[in-house]
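Peptidyl-prolyl cis-trans isomerase
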Amino acid sequence: MEFIIPFKGEVKFKLILDPTVWIFDDRKLNLETYFQEERIEKDELEDYKRGMGEHWSREIMEGSTVPPTLNSEKTYKNKEKKEMLTGTFGILFKPFLLNAEPYEHAKRVVFETLHGDFDFPIEHAEQLVFKFSDHGKPLKEDGPVHVLLPDGSNQENPITDIQAIRVE
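Tokens:
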């Protein structure tokens, strides 16, 4: 089984997704709590402005660091390490879809699996969640990812064995 997922079709950029590195991604979601908690939509532009302000203030106070090390300075406490080794994690599909830049005429996202194709309108696909880790282990048997609906209603029966993602 491949642990990469080609992203193809009516997109400007043909991507290859590698779920094995997402465990270190700050965007990962704890799926043990994600579908039970209330979510508040964040304004990404506002978050960006706030982050740039913090970076600017840091440079004024401490001087410039070359190369920038803010993202690599994170250290993991024992609790976080244990969570990474035993947790069940996912990541939202939307950033990958946006990075691939579907053409304006594209209307659907198709997940090609060993069991057939599953397709969603682009607007709905943006809300899907990729489960990439179960109790600290990568999804080797029927992975590399499982596709979960936005409300988590298919957690017991997710879309598995993803071979490729096609935009049409």
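The first strand starts at residue 5 and ends at 9.
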